[in-house]
């Protein structure tokens, strides 16, 4: 695996690969890699000839400075995992390389209502930061395909919107969420949970399964929501949201009819102590 710190060198490498007729797959990450990330690498390797991963903890997408400071860094282990997975290139830029003119006064993206609900509502500015870094990364890597995780459901929708705004031909491939054996969605932030909280964390997954079962039995959403919230607060979670939304638009589903015409997704964000976890499930 070749490691690039500078966009110019990476661009030269990508150009060589493209000249040789190879398709480029790209997996952007913030490091502290787990098997969910590696599943994206595997997916990219299955569909494209050259897989590029990036590791960059993007300061502009953190609305909470402590979350940024405590974000895990396991770069040596990450490199070994990527080598073992057969990743072709790793882009490891500095903050100065990504934001040569600093991180203030950056461009603003019109994300419409997507930015006003769920993660957008509870993490103001987060999706602007995601777009600011993705715009730069996509211009630097210029992949044919981009692989991202359904775990960050709304982020996939935001990036899809960014690709439209950029009039980009890059194809976004959304990959399923990888889970621990007890159902907890794999996440870099899981490393920050105490042993005790790690055991409680699976309640989010249990809630999503519960929501699905109850919806299938025709129970009304307000009743299900209240019970799901109680399941979380009973074990010590502080809830940002438990919502049911249209899977295509993310608009809240308020109707309680069992036969909702479109697909639905249940989404949860909640804190255990200072660790914020998110997860979702298609219903
Ligand atoms: P992150 O490093 O958390 O920014 O995540 C990088 C990419 O990995 C994003 O596209 C995430 O959606 C994806 N990802 C994170 N966790 C998982 C998971 N458990 N399963 C599949 N993909 C994931």
UniProtKB/TrEMBL annotation:
HAMAP family: PanC (MF_00158). It catalyses: (R)-pantoate + beta-alanine + ATP = (R)-pantothenate + AMP + diphosphate + H(+). (R)-pantoate binds at residues 61, 155. Its EC number is 6.3.2.1. The reaction proceeds by a bi uni uni bi ping pong mechanism. InterPro entries: Pantoate_ligase, Pantoate_ligase_C, Rossmann-like_a/b/a_fold. Catalyzes the condensation of pantoate with beta-alanine in an ATP-dependent reaction via a pantoyl-adenylate intermediate. PANTHER family: CYTIDYLATE KINASE/PANTOATE-BETA-ALANINE LIGASE (PTHR21299), PANTOATE--BETA-ALANINE LIGASE (PTHR21299:SF1). Keywords: ATP-binding, Cytoplasm, Ligase, Nucleotide-binding, Pantothenate biosynthesis. GO terms for cellular component: cytosol. One of its GO terms (biological process) is pantothenate biosynthetic process. This is Pantothenate synthetase. It comes from Niastella koreensis (strain DSM 17620 / KACC 11465 / NBRC 106392 / GR20-10). Gene3D superfamilies: HUPs, Pantoate-beta-alanine ligase, C-terminal domain. It is found in: Cytoplasm. Pathway: Cofactor biosynthesis; (R)-pantothenate biosynthesis; (R)-pantothenate from (R)-pantoate and beta-alanine: step 1/1. Belongs to the pantothenate synthetase family. One of its GO terms (molecular function) is ATP binding. Beta-alanine binds at residue 61. It comes from the Bacteria.
